[in-house]
């Protein structure tokens, strides 16, 4: 077809299409390079799973989010960019990977890192290798299993399976051979997941996934451009020769559409797409878009042109129906055309400069619908249009200069028809016109006030229920009323000026408004009511519920309370109103108010008090509307005029959109760098979105761009964002700015974990519940990391603790100091009292001691009874000892309180030392010690305090004697050196333990030693030595080896220079008596009791063993007990135990506190020994503690006596012990010897004895009877039986059994039944001589004598006990 014919056909189709679109109100919007598209030739269109639009052009890939484009182009030497700028196809697989086919290969877009990755394949000649796909890609599709099919130009079909790293080429069978090199023109995957292909020269094929092969289906066509498979079982194929419909079931072409009337506008169909209404949209080359109704087979057309209903280009290479049924059309050189069904809710009528049959002007200022249904449209500057809607015809009128019967002005401000059918047209600047329908001419009327001035600017016309016609004017304008009689407009009331709104309510009240007031007109009295509004009243409207609404310019919408005369409610933009300039108010059939403003239209629900707003993006002529340009038609439709025509719509058809656009992050910047340049910040991400970021603290400057994918009204979308952990609440930046969605910037975010939450509304203002979120972790510097804080906390805690401890300690110290001061004062007071007490008590002690010692001393000198002399010696010795202890305590007390003032004088030091030495000679001799004194200068003189020096020497020598065993040696040496004199006291005693040497000079300290005496003293002697020597400015040291001895050395300075500040007497001190008093009288050597006496083999005296380490006590006890008992002595517990085990004393008297084994341990060992446990034990102690007494009793002590004890009491208790034991044994012997027994013993002992006798008597003739048998039949252990028999009889078990045999023999002989021999044999004794001997020991006579003496009187004198 020639060029002329084609364009002729286009013109015809254009007229048809324009008429159709004029009725539907559909408009087409355009996107091109002016809006940011990379190239106006669009080859392909795709919408991904998020709803983002993608466009492939001749020069790059574009994404579009409703606000703007983002362009992706090939960059030289950048492998992360697309391979080529010519984009043929775009596709997204089931994993949401975006595949882009170009003229030189295919790439997959990574949304996270904003990079493209090339796709590889295994070449047929080397299947183990990989090569990039570099051929031209015609089409890309994927199936439900994740396989991707790439149709190429000349390289055949590439199949990329989901888990494979490279694609493979699929061969096809040609008539001659199988080949890999062929042209795949189209690929389509239908809703059954079947893959259809069209291969050039082969025809229609499908891919067999079972064996990875291509199977030919139909070869009726050899070449196609595009292919679409619908849900009815048809495949539509666009070719250079028209459109073909292929029936899959019948395997045949069923229809062929070609260029012609009622068919295609051109034969070349290059793109196909089906919509939800069973229409097939066909993009053509040179013929626009053809819309085929598949059911009826009829066509509609979209053709190129200048109208808002026409395409931008005649060639449409791609068509896509998006998720909201918009039609996106990619054109050749015309960019993108969008047919948005959501913008067709409002029909827009505009002026078409290329069509006389159109609105006369776009500035619409007034409406009126006449009785015939004609719509009168007044414009501001264009005149008047009368639209015959059924016939779509416009009759236009305008001012014709020089024609008095034409419209007086082109600025029409109001149109009204009165009750007579007259049409009145008010103009702004030329008065009022009355239109003559018959002639089409206009009659002009003037509005002249009482002053003769004409008000040419007429604003409004209104006819009330009384058929009064009113006109308001502006510019010192008055209110006029039509005088029909005189056919002129007359001024009504000069007080009313510049009225810009007028209406009558249901009660007939006329309401008007001016620039500041709402006024109720009184037509009779002209006494009007005025109500201040503060803003111009632009509209007054009474709804169907008789609510009076007032629209103000700048003050919003007012609900006026006529009864109270005030504003009941005000609604503004804060309440959802689109703009506070309310120009017009209308009510629809449902009672909703429609309000036009300077910024769109609001639909108001008076019941719910909710606004719903509409803007130019919703299909309105623009956002700005005009004063008074609003009308509700008889059909219920509403007409609203503005600056770009007017909108006509049915409110019932303006439905709410429920679509909720997805919100995406379109860009992220970290430290002013795109995230693609800082991939290390991405911690976690999905296939197409980032879930978590980790940012260093010094790069925590973050920017986020986001968008909700709304394409019809993107400016109506509102955004809110909230950085949880940083912001206090949601941030509402409002609507998205032009050219983009939302943007957030956060600078210098401190370290922490945050959650960025972004949400948006849809175009209806409903908030999306689905938020876009990103977790953000801002890393702290090393000194603010958790482990650093943990360290800080530990350090701080330690410092706080240390400070707390310091303060606590300080408080404690302060408190202790206060207490110490108090205690010191009290202690000083107590010490003073104690010192006074010691002083007084010493005198109290010394006076009676003097009265004791001196008389006894005189008695001892006189001599007399030896025994009395010994007793007096004991008394004298212990009295001297007590005096010595008192003096030592007084000396220590003086030293402790520093009351012992040093008084120095020159003394012959040799004489002083020698006198001390001589004091201990007798004591050393009695202790069998080698005691010597040596001084190399007999004339040696020193400045010393004689008394203190004697005390020092006394303590050193007395300690040496005390700690040196008999046979040892003690040397006392004085050496004179150049400037000093050295004293040395050396012994061969037990020595000092190494761990005790450091504390030896401490007050009250006593070195522990097994070899030390048990009564070593108070621990003050060496303390006094050190104290007094240091007072002499000298020094004292010692050397000691445990077990070998000790050497003390004292160094004293010669002369008196070192005593400069001390008191020095001119004369030597008198010899003090303290030394004589300190010395204890040595004990007299006495021969131990019994040592020199010949041992008596047999005696009736009880033996007593005395165990005590104190010789005086032993001697005293021995003296006290020797008259009645045989007394043995032991110096310690171990010796006592040995003597008990060997000599079996009848009683043991032991001191508890002894060296080595103490008295309690001795008692325990005796009582645990079955051979010794019958021996009574008496324990003596100086302690009065109940604990010691309890322990002694628990260990089996028979008697516990505390010191000092009463002599008579001790003797009585010892005698009582022996008496108890004698009673038991007498009872036993009485029983054994068959004597009359009147002794009272416990039932326990009596029963035990009877059982023993019975058992032994039963076994008298039993040769196998042994101690074991007796033990078994008694049911006791051997040790317990022995113990009890020993206690009862004092005999062993063997002797006990023999006594019972002899008892039985005596009984047999007394009865007269047996003679001596027979009785012996009867009781198991075969040796008659042995029998006679033992019988004599027991009964004190021979058996024959016993028979003679007792047989005749047996029955009178003896009571023989029988068994049972």
UniProtKB/TrEMBL annotation:
<dbReference type="Pfam" id="PF00072">
    <property type="entry name" value="Response_reg"/>
</dbReference>
<keyword id="KW-0808">Transferase</keyword>
<dbReference type="Pfam" id="PF07495">
    <property type="entry name" value="Y_Y_Y"/>
</dbReference>
<keyword id="KW-0804">Transcription</keyword>
<keyword id="KW-0238">DNA-binding</keyword>
<dbReference type="Pfam" id="PF12833">
    <property type="entry name" value="HTH_18"/>
</dbReference>
<dbReference type="InterPro" id="IPR015943">
    <property type="entry name" value="WD40/YVTN_repeat-like_dom_sf"/>
</dbReference>
<keyword id="KW-0067">ATP-binding</keyword>
<keyword id="KW-0732">Signal</keyword>
<dbReference type="GO" id="GO:0043565">
    <property type="term" value="F:sequence-specific DNA binding"/>
</dbReference>
<keyword id="KW-0597">Phosphoprotein</keyword>
<dbReference type="InterPro" id="IPR011006">
    <property type="entry name" value="CheY-like_superfamily"/>
</dbReference>
<dbReference type="InterPro" id="IPR005467">
    <property type="entry name" value="His_kinase_dom"/>
</dbReference>
<dbReference type="Pfam" id="PF02518">
    <property type="entry name" value="HATPase_c"/>
</dbReference>
<dbReference type="InterPro" id="IPR036890">
    <property type="entry name" value="HATPase_C_sf"/>
</dbReference>
<keyword id="KW-1133">Transmembrane helix</keyword>
<dbReference type="InterPro" id="IPR003594">
    <property type="entry name" value="HATPase_dom"/>
</dbReference>
<keyword id="KW-0902">Two-component regulatory system</keyword>
<dbReference type="InterPro" id="IPR003661">
    <property type="entry name" value="HisK_dim/P_dom"/>
</dbReference>
<dbReference type="InterPro" id="IPR018062">
    <property type="entry name" value="HTH_AraC-typ_CS"/>
</dbReference>
<dbReference type="InterPro" id="IPR001789">
    <property type="entry name" value="Sig_transdc_resp-reg_receiver"/>
</dbReference>
<keyword id="KW-0418">Kinase</keyword>
<feature type="signal peptide">
    <location>
        <begin position="1"/>
        <end position="22"/>
    </location>
</feature>
<keyword id="KW-0547">Nucleotide-binding</keyword>
<dbReference type="InterPro" id="IPR011123">
    <property type="entry name" value="Y_Y_Y"/>
</dbReference>
<dbReference type="InterPro" id="IPR018060">
    <property type="entry name" value="HTH_AraC"/>
</dbReference>
<dbReference type="InterPro" id="IPR013783">
    <property type="entry name" value="Ig-like_fold"/>
</dbReference>
<dbReference type="Pfam" id="PF07494">
    <property type="entry name" value="Reg_prop"/>
</dbReference>
<keyword id="KW-0812">Transmembrane</keyword>
<protein>
    <recommendedName>
        <fullName>histidine kinase</fullName>
        <ecNumber>2.7.13.3</ecNumber>
    </recommendedName>
</protein>
<keyword id="KW-0805">Transcription regulation</keyword>
<dbReference type="InterPro" id="IPR011110">
    <property type="entry name" value="Reg_prop"/>
</dbReference>
<dbReference type="InterPro" id="IPR009057">
    <property type="entry name" value="Homeodomain-like_sf"/>
</dbReference>
<keyword id="KW-0472">Membrane</keyword>
<dbReference type="InterPro" id="IPR036097">
    <property type="entry name" value="HisK_dim/P_sf"/>
</dbReference>
<feature type="modified residue" description="4-aspartylphosphate">
    <location>
        <position position="1151"/>
    </location>
</feature>
<dbReference type="InterPro" id="IPR004358">
    <property type="entry name" value="Sig_transdc_His_kin-like_C"/>
</dbReference>
<feature type="domain" description="Response regulatory">
    <location>
        <begin position="1103"/>
        <end position="1218"/>
    </location>
</feature>
<dbReference type="GO" id="GO:0000155">
    <property type="term" value="F:phosphorelay sensor kinase activity"/>
</dbReference>
<feature type="domain" description="Histidine kinase">
    <location>
        <begin position="840"/>
        <end position="1056"/>
    </location>
</feature>
<feature type="transmembrane region" description="Helical">
    <location>
        <begin position="786"/>
        <end position="804"/>
    </location>
</feature>
<dbReference type="GO" id="GO:0003700">
    <property type="term" value="F:DNA-binding transcription factor activity"/>
</dbReference>
């Amino acid at each position: 077809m020639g060029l002329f014919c084609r364009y002729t056909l286009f013109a015809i189709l254009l007229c048809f299409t324009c008429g159709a679109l004029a009725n539907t109100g559909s408009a087409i919007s355009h996107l091109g390079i002016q809006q940011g598209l990379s190239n106006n030739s669009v080859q392909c269109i795709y919408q991904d799973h998020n709803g983002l639009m993608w466009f492939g052009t001749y020069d790059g890939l574009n994404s579009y989010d409703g606000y703007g484009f983002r362009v992706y182009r090939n960059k030289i030497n950048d492998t992360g960019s697309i391979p080529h700028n010519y984009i043929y196809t775009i596709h997204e697989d089931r994993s949401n990977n975006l595949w882009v086919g170009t003229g030189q290969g295919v790439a997959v877009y990574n949304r996270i890192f904003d990079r493209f990755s090339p796709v590889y394949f295994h070449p047929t000649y080397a299947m183990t290798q990989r090569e990039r796909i570099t051929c031209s890609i015609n089409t890309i599709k994927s199936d439900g299993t994740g396989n991707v099919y790439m149709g190429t130009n000349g390289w055949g079909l590439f199949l990329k399976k989901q888990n494979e790293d490279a694609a493979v080429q699929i061969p096809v069978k040609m008539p001659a051979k199988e080949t890999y090199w062929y042209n795949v023109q189209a690929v389509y995957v239908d809703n059954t997941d079947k893959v259809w292909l069209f291969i050039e020269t082969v025809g229609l094929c499908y891919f067999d996934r079972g064996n990875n092969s291509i199977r030919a289906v139909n070869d009726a066509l050899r070449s196609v451009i595009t292919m679409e498979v619908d849900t009815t079982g048809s495949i539509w194929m666009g070719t250079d020769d028209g459109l073909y419909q292929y029936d899959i079931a019948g395997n045949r072409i069923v229809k062929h559409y070609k260029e012609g009337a009622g068919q295609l506008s051109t034969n070349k169909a290059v793109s196909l797409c089906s919509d939800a209404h069973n229409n097939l949209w066909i993009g053509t080359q040179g013929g626009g878009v053809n819309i085929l109704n598949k059911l009826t087979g009829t066509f509609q057309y979209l053709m190129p042109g200048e109208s808002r209903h026409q395409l931008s280009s005649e060639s449409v290479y791609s068509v896509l129906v998006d998720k909201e049924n918009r039609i996106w059309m990619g054109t050749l050189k015309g960019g993108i055309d969008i047919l948005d069904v959501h913008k067709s809710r409002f029909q827009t009528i505009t002026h078409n400069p290329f069509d006389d049959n159109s609105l006369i002007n776009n500035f619409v200022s007034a409406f009126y619908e006449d009785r015939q249904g004609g719509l009168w449209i007044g414009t501001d500057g264009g005149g008047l249009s009368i639209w015959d809607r059924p016939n779509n015809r416009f009759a236009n009128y305008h001012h014709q200069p020089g024609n008095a019967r034409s419209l007086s002005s082109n600025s029409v401000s109001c149109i009204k028809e009165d009750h007579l059918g007259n049409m009145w047209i008010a103009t702004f600047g030329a008065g009022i016109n009355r239109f003559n329908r018959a002639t089409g001419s206009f009659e002009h009327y003037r509005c002249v006030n009482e002053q003769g001035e004409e008000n040419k600017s007429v604003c409004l016309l209104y006819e009330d229920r009384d058929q009064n016609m009113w006109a308001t004017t502006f510019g010192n304008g008055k209110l006029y009323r039509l005088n029909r009689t005189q056919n002129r407009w007359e001024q009504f009331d000069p007080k009313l000026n510049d009225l810009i709104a007028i209406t009558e309510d249901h009660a007939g009240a006329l309401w008007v408004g001016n620039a500041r007031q709402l006024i109720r007109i009184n037509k009779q009295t002209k006494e009007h009511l005025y109500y201040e509004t503060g803003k111009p009243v632009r509209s007054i409207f009474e709804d169907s519920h008789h609510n009076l609404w007032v629209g103000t310019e700048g003050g919003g919408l007012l609900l006026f309370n006529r009864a109270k005369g005030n504003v009941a409610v005000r609604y503004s933009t804060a309440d959802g109103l689109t703009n506070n300039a309310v120009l017009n108010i209308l009510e629809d059939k449902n009672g909703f108010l429609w309000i036009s403003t300077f910024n769109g239209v609001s639909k108001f629900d008076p019941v719910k008090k909710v606004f719903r707003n509409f803007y130019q993006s919703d299909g309105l002529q623009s956002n700005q509307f005009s004063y008074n340009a609003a009308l509700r038609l008889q059909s219920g439709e509403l007409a609203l005029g503005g600056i770009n025509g007017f909108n006509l719509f049915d409110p019932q058809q303006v439905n709410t959109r429920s679509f909720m656009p997805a919100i995406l992050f379109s860009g992220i910047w970290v430290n002013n760098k795109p995230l693609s340049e800082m991939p290390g910040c991405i911690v976690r991400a999905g296939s197409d979105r980032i879930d978590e970021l980790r940012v260093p603290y010094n790069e925590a400057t973050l920017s986020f761009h986001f968008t909700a994918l709304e394409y019809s009204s993107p400016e109506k979308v509102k955004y809110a964002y909230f950085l949880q952990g940083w912001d206090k609440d949601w941030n509402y930046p409002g609507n998205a700015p032009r050219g983009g969605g939302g943007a957030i910037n956060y600078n210098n975010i401190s370290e922490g974990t945050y959650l960025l939450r972004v949400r948006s509304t849809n175009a209806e203002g409903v908030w999306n519940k689905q938020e876009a979120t990103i977790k953000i972790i801002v890393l702290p510097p090393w000194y603010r990391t958790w482990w650093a804080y943990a360290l800080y906390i530990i350090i701080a805690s330690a410092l706080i603790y240390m400070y707390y401890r310091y303060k606590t300690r300080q408080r404690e110290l302060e408190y202790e100091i206060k207490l110490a001061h108090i205690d010191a004062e009290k202690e000083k007071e107590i010490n003073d009292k104690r010192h006074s007490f010691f002083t007084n008590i010493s005198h109290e002690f010394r006076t009676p001691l003097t009265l004791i010692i001196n008389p006894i001393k005189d008695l001892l000198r006189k001599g007399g009874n030896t025994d009395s002399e010994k007793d007096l010696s004991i008394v004298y010795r212990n009295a001297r000892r007590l005096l010595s202890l008192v003096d030592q305590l007084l000396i220590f007390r003086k030293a402790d309180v520093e009351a012992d003032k040093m008084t120095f004088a020159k003394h012959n030091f040799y004489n002083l030392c020698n006198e001390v030495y001589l004091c201990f000679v007798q004591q050393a001799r009695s202790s069998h010690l080698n005691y010597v004194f040596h001084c190399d200068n007999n004339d040696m003189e020193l400045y010393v305090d004689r008394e203190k020096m004697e005390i020092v020497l006394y303590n050193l020598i007395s300690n040496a004697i005390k700690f040196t065993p008999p046979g040892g040696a003690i040397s006392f040496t004085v050496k004179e050196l150049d400037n000093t004199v050295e004293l040395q006291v050396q012994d061969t005693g037990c020595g000092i333990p190494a761990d005790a040497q450091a504390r030896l000079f401490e007050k009250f300290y006593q070195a522990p030693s097994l070899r030390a005496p048990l009564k070593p003293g108070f621990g003050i002697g060496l303390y006094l030595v050190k104290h007094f020597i240091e007072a002499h400015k000298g020094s004292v040291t010692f050397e000691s080896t445990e077990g070998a001895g000790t050497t003390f050395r004292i160094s004293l300075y010669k002369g008196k220079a070192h005593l400069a500040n001390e008191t020095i007497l001119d004369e030597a001190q008198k010899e003090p008596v303290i030394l004589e008093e300190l010395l204890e009288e040595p004990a007299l050597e006495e021969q131990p009791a019994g040592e020199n006496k010949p041992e008596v083999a047999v005696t009736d005296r009880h033996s007593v063993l005395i165990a005590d380490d104190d010789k005086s006590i032993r001697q005293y006890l021995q003296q006290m007990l020797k008259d009645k008992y045989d007394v043995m002595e032991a110096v310690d517990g171990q010796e006592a135990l040995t003597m008990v085990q060997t000599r079996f004393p009848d009683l043991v008297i032991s001191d508890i506190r002894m060296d080595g084994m103490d008295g309690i341990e001795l008692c325990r060992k005796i009582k645990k020994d079955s051979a010794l446990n019958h021996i009574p034990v008496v324990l003596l102690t100086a302690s009065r503690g109940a604990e010691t007494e309890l322990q002694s009793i628990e260990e089996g002590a028979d008697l516990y006596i505390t010191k000092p004890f009463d002599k008579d009491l001790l003797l009585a208790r010892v005698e009582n012990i022996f008496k108890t034991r004698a009673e038991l044994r007498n009872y036993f012997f009485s029983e054994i010897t068959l004597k009359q027994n009147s002794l009272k013993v416990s039932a326990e002992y009596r029963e035990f004895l009877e059982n023993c006798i019975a058992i032994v008597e039963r076994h008298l003739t039993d040769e196998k009877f042994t101690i074991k048998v007796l033990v078994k039949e008694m049911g006791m252990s051997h040790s317990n039986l022995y113990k009890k028999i020993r206690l009862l009889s004092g005999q062993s078990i063997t002797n006990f059994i023999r006594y019972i045999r002899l008892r039985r023999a005596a009984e047999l002989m007394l009865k007269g039944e047996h003679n001596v021999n027979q009785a012996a044999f009867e009781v198991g004794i075969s040796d008659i001589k042995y029998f006679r001997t033992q019988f004599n020991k027991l009964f004190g006579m021979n058996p024959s004598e016993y028979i003679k003496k007792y047989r005749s009187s047996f029955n009178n004198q003896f009571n023989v006990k029988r068994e049972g």
